[in-house]
């Protein structure tokens, strides 16, 4: 049996902090120099609140392949499926070049893995194939 494959990720990232800071800076400059409407300043600020909440709470997410099971967690959500219940793993490349993973079960049901819990697709696909799980790749489909 191969060693467990584990991927974990934190919700807090330097990129998020820099982008939110840049948005706030641009908004304040637009308000001060270009006389941006205060309600628009508030609206832009409200749009950044979810990113700041993730930065503050720092939710963990991840995925583990071990002992014939795939286990994942993201915040308060958790899930697990045995390998023998999985027909194949579908890896969809979206128009924004992100890759979404879906477990297609032998019953025909589909379980979409949370994006934040999904590892980088190359390493994930290799780990799945090493454990005998079939993968199918689909590129740039609008509907699944």
Key traits:
144 residues, 2 domains, 4-stranded antiparallel β-sheet, transmembrane, 4 helices, alpha+beta, PH-domain like, 4-stranded mixed β-sheet, transmembrane helix
Q: How is this fold's topology laid out?
A:
Layout: E1 5-10, H1 14-33, H2 38-47, H3 49-57, E2 60-66, E3 69-74, E4 77-82, E5 86-93, E6 99-105, E7 110-112, H4 121-130, E8 135-139
Parallel strand pairs: 5-8
Antiparallel strand pairs: 1-2, 2-3, 3-4, 5-6, 6-7
Helix pairs in contact: 1-2
Keywords: Membrane, Transmembrane, Transmembrane helix
Transmembrane segments: 15-33
Question: Would you mind describing this structure in some detail?
Answer:
- The chain is an alpha+beta fold.
- It has 2 domains: 86 residues, Roll (PH-domain like); 47 residues.
- Helices cover 34% and strands 33% of the residues.
- The protein contains 4 helices and 8 strands.
- The strands form 2 sheets. A 4-stranded antiparallel sheet has the order 1-2-3-4, with no helix packed on it.
- A hairpin with a 2-residue loop joins strand 3 and strand 4.
- Helix 1 packs antiparallel against helix 2.
- The model has no long low-confidence stretch (mean pLDDT 90).
Task: Describe, in short, the structure shown.
By secondary structure, the protein is of the alpha+beta class.
Q: Helices and strands: which structural class?
A: alpha+beta
The total tally of domains equals 2
- What's the CATH first level of the largest domain? Mainly Beta
Q: Which architecture name of the largest domain does CATH use? A: Roll
Shape: elongated
Query: What is the tally of helical segments?
Result: 4
The helix/strand series, from N terminus to C terminus, equals EHHHEEEEEEHE
Low-confidence stretches: none
Overall pLDDT: 90
User: Helical proportion?
Assistant: 25-40%
Give the CA-CA distance, first to last residue.
34 Å
- Here the CATH topology of the largest domain equals PH-domain like
Number of strands: 8
Question: Looking at this structure, what is the CATH superfamily of the largest domain?
Answer: Pleckstrin-homology domain (PH domain)/Phosphotyrosine-binding domain (PTB)
């Amino acid at each position: 049996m191969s060693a467990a494959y584990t991927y974990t990720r934190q919700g807090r990232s330097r990129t998020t902090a820099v982008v939110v800071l840049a948005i706030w800076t641009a908004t304040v400059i637009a308000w001060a120099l270009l006389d941006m409407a205060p309600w628009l300043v508030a609206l832009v600020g409200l749009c950044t609140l979810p990113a700041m909440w993730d930065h503050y709470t720092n939710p963990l997410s991840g995925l583990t392949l071990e002992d014939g099971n795939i286990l994942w967690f993201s915040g308060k959500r958790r899930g697990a499926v045995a390998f023998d219940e999985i027909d194949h793993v579908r890896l969809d490349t979206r128009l924004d070049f992100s890759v979404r993973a879906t477990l297609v079960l032998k019953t025909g049901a589909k379980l979409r893995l949370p994006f934040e819990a999904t590892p980088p697709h190359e390493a994930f696909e290799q780990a799945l194939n090493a454990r005998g799980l079939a993968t199918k790749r689909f590129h740039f489909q609008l509907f699944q």
